[in-house]
Amino acid sequence: MRPPGRSGMLSRRSVAAQVFVVHVVIVVLLVLASAAALVLQGRAASEEEARNRSRAVAVSFAGAPGTWEALLSPDPTAELQPRAEEVRRSVPVDFVVVMNTEGIRYTHPRADRIGKKFVGRIGPALRGEPVVEEITGTIGRLVQAVVPVRDPQGRVVGLVSAGITVESVGNTADRQLPLLLGAAAAALALATAGTAVAGRRLLRQTHGLGPREMTRMYEHHDAVLHSVREGVVIVGADGELLLANDEAQRLLGLPDDTGRRRVGELGLSPDMAQLLLSGRVATDEVRPVGDRLVVVNQRPTRLRGGPSGSVATLRDSTELRALSGRAEAARERLDLLYAAGLGIGSSLDVRRTAEALAELVVPRFADHATVDLFDAVLEGDEPSARPDPGAALRRTAVVGVDEAPLFPLDARIRPDGSSPQARVLRAGRALLEPRLAETPAWEGQDREQWSQLLEHGVRSLIAVPVRAGGQVLGVVGFWRDRRTEPFDEEELAVAEELVTRAAVAIDNARRFTREHGMAVTLQRSLLPRRLPDQDALEVAYRYLPAQAGVGGDWFDVLPLSGARVALVVGDVVGHGLHAAATMGRLRTAVHTFSALDLHPEELLGLLDELVARIDQEENPDGGVTITGATCLYAVYDPVSRRCVMSRAGHLPPAVVRPDGRVEFLEVPAGPPLGLGGLPYETAEVELEEGSRLVLYTDGLVEERDRDIDAGLELLRASLARAGESPEDTCRDVLEGVAPRPTDDIAVLVARTRVIGADRIAVWDVPRDPSAVGGIRAAAARLLTEWGLEDQAFTTELILSELVTNALRHGSGPVRVRVLRERELICEVSDAGSTAPRLRQATTFDEGGRGLFLVAQLSERWGTRWTPEGKVIWAAQPLP
């Protein structure tokens, strides 16, 4: 059903129907005229095309190769007739005629016409001018062209004519006429459809209403315009107020007789008047009008093809503004809590966590923030569940927008019973002081301190206890001085939520501090507290524990027999107490194995088995987790200046030659300890006196954002410019390679020394028991030269027993070596593969007391194996 007063589209009363009929008639007339014009134009174009085509064919045939020669041949028809017919069939023309200069045809589509006179004008062509004409020929009315044929000298030797009949031209136009009529019909259909669409749109816009209905509709629109609760203002291009509904008059305070007055004469504020007169695009711009806030949206009317001017809508947003302000404040608080969840707790340092809280809230929530914690919390200890309200607090963090007279960082604060901190600790809940000037809390504390705060402008305070797991860790204070509004109950809830989240992070950092301290203490107790005394190397070291977790890096310096010294550096995979404990077990094992005078590769093999057993003990279910460790073991001999080393998955050592050259030694890389399966290999290098051997762990050269090769090159450069002493080398390497280490680091620098020939004596012993006496005499003379006459008897007795055992039980050549270092060392070597064993001789045994006697007279004794055999040695302390 149609609404009352609404007509159908075909109704004569409908404006849309009338417009539709007029448009259809106009379109039909235009299409018919266009079709007629197209037909005439098509015929003219076809005739022009026939003239151009006939002339082009004649010219092309006349200039074709061989045409003039054929004309001069004895039988031109035989040569030219097939070519002319081929051209006629391939090109849409009706004939191609070749003739002599007298007009006698040599070719023609009809054979009976050959040899007869050509019909048409040939005079101009004989003079060299082509001719195009319409005539009636032997095949009917036609359009033909006549062109001359020239020989190479330019003489006209014949003529060529090509043409198409008028009937063919007409057929071409007739073939185009259906296409033209079809196009005209399609154009008519499209035009009719477009007119119908335009008519329907006009019908929708007018709703098929007549003048009376349109008048009533505009009356309704006017009533609605003045009853809506949104102001509408229309301004003309000349600044004249064209329309202002009732709501606009109310919001802008306009008089009733505003009709066609200029905007500048309405008494509006300059800001509002300028906006309405500018005509620019405005979207939700807020303008104050009296005691209201009005939201203005304005658009130029010319943007939609209308007249110049602008239309503006006005909306009262005073209450909405207040609501949006509260919503914005709530959003900011949510953002603050979200940022707290992300930013607080990213560090496991108590102080840094407290600073993160203070930095987060200033100036977004407060103008100043302070965090006061108990000393036990900073040290990682357990705080008291019910702390003394008067117990001292430590100012751990303080952040502000300016320099306020608050207690400085690290100050000890001992609040009394009336201070906010004491009240918070005593009550165990947050405290809100919206106006500090009106509270007597400051009277019981330092009057000068609180007076300075009030004079500075601090006017509002929130104090919140830091609670974690039922324990109070401290107090957080939020202060305001620049903001005029004091803290309220909603902000108190936000402050409590912030401190609650921070308390968890602070307690986690406290626990980490405690565990880290325990691990560091354990690790330092497992590392050497002092280096042993020895003369082979001048040694310096540095050990830096990891900041985020104690690792398993370790080092050692172990004196060996024969004045040799072993250097050890290792790294246990992982961090924490487990890694530190594993490191201690490995260090103890290295001490034990080194006392056996094992070769470096043998010692690493035993360590590998030990780590594998540790894995089995700690993972009895047969899992695939491996404790894992790396180790580098090097033995330096100050007599031969040779250094033998082997490594298990560790980085290669560096050596700084006396001339300053730095190189990384090529030591075969074995698998890390605990993996097993492959034997370890050794490398031997000769070191000049004064060379610096540098052993280190991967924490020195490897970082997350730096490739290990870049770290090694940086180490090489630092060693090249480092000081010559081991202490200077350690300091310069750490400053140049790892100024801010993230992993634990162990660095061991040893500068080589050499035992001079004046402190060494070597004698070859003949395999004759009587040679023992000569050795004793030589030893006595040597000790006299060294000023050790008091030890001559003991030394002669030791050498006598050791040489006698070598001659009796050993094989091969026997050699004696005496060294004077920190100890007096006597060594007897032979090629035998059996080692003496100390045992307790019975009363009736005739032998077996010599080695017991050596053990009693010397401080230490032992056996070490060499590629040539064995060495039995005994060391005596020097006076």
TrEMBL record:
<dbReference type="InterPro" id="IPR036457">
    <property type="entry name" value="PPM-type-like_dom_sf"/>
</dbReference>
<dbReference type="InterPro" id="IPR000014">
    <property type="entry name" value="PAS"/>
</dbReference>
<dbReference type="Pfam" id="PF17203">
    <property type="entry name" value="sCache_3_2"/>
</dbReference>
<dbReference type="InterPro" id="IPR029016">
    <property type="entry name" value="GAF-like_dom_sf"/>
</dbReference>
<dbReference type="InterPro" id="IPR035965">
    <property type="entry name" value="PAS-like_dom_sf"/>
</dbReference>
<dbReference type="InterPro" id="IPR003018">
    <property type="entry name" value="GAF"/>
</dbReference>
<keyword id="KW-0378">Hydrolase</keyword>
<protein>
    <submittedName>
        <fullName>SpoIIE family protein phosphatase</fullName>
    </submittedName>
</protein>
<feature type="domain" description="PAS">
    <location>
        <begin position="217"/>
        <end position="254"/>
    </location>
</feature>
<keyword id="KW-1003">Cell membrane</keyword>
<dbReference type="InterPro" id="IPR029151">
    <property type="entry name" value="Sensor-like_sf"/>
</dbReference>
<feature type="transmembrane region" description="Helical">
    <location>
        <begin position="20"/>
        <end position="40"/>
    </location>
</feature>
<keyword id="KW-0808">Transferase</keyword>
<dbReference type="InterPro" id="IPR033463">
    <property type="entry name" value="sCache_3"/>
</dbReference>
<keyword id="KW-0812">Transmembrane</keyword>
<dbReference type="InterPro" id="IPR052016">
    <property type="entry name" value="Bact_Sigma-Reg"/>
</dbReference>
<keyword id="KW-1133">Transmembrane helix</keyword>
<keyword id="KW-0547">Nucleotide-binding</keyword>
<dbReference type="Pfam" id="PF13185">
    <property type="entry name" value="GAF_2"/>
</dbReference>
<dbReference type="InterPro" id="IPR001932">
    <property type="entry name" value="PPM-type_phosphatase-like_dom"/>
</dbReference>
<dbReference type="Pfam" id="PF07228">
    <property type="entry name" value="SpoIIE"/>
</dbReference>
<dbReference type="InterPro" id="IPR036890">
    <property type="entry name" value="HATPase_C_sf"/>
</dbReference>
<keyword id="KW-0597">Phosphoprotein</keyword>
<dbReference type="Pfam" id="PF13581">
    <property type="entry name" value="HATPase_c_2"/>
</dbReference>
<keyword id="KW-0472">Membrane</keyword>
<dbReference type="InterPro" id="IPR003594">
    <property type="entry name" value="HATPase_dom"/>
</dbReference>
<keyword id="KW-0067">ATP-binding</keyword>
<keyword id="KW-0902">Two-component regulatory system</keyword>
<keyword id="KW-0418">Kinase</keyword>
